């Protein structure tokens, strides 16, 4: 079970985008994440008339290390550490360490 998953709201704690928030678009197998509107780069892309792809300079998200993000806790309004807990019905869920609130409903 991973601490940060696709669809989670995260806050950036290190790097050029420190302090920004975004939603995780993808979790890559090498321990990196793609976060919406964070770590934007400009990619020079060649057009392809067969697929109808437009050429030019495209701005897109680059991967960011998972250690540079924290799960956003809406109750406190800040990034928070995550732990694991097994519920009475046998499910393993994530919870915020600061207020013991369960992340996975």
Strand and helix order: EEEEEEEEEE
For the record, give the distance between the C-alpha atoms at the N and C termini, rounded to a whole number.
15 Å
| Architecture per CATH nomenclature, i.e. the level-2 architecture of the domain at 9-79 | Roll
Estimate the helix proportion, in percent: under 10%
Kindly report the spatial arrangement of strands forming the biggest sheet.
6-3-2-1-7-8
Say how many strands there are: 10
What is the name of the CATH topology of the domain at 9-79? SH3 type barrels
Largest sheet: 6 strands, antiparallel
**Mean pLDDT, rounded to whole units?**
94
Strand content: 35-45%
- For the record, the CATH class of the domain at 9-79 is Mainly Beta
Low-confidence stretches: none
Q: Can you tell me the overall shape?
A: elongated
Number of helices: 0
Structural class: mainly beta
Protein name: Large ribosomal subunit protein uL24
Family: Belongs to the universal ribosomal protein uL24 family.
Keywords: Ribonucleoprotein, Ribosomal protein, RNA-binding, rRNA-binding
Pfam families: KOW, ribosomal_L24
């Amino acid at each position: 079970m991973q601490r940060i998953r696709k669809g989670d709201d995260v806050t950036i704690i290190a790097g050029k985008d420190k302090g920004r928030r975004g939603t995780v678009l993808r979790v890559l197998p090498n321990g990196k994440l793609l976060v919406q509107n964070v770590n934007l780069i400009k990619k020079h892309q060649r057009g392809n008339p067969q697929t109808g792809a437009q050429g030019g300079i495209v701005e897109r998200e680059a991967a960011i290390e998972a250690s540079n993000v924290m799960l956003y806790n809406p109750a406190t309004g800040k990034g928070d550490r995550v732990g694991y807990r097994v519920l009475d019905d046998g499910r393993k869920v994530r919870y915020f360490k600061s207020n013991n609130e369960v992340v996975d409903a």
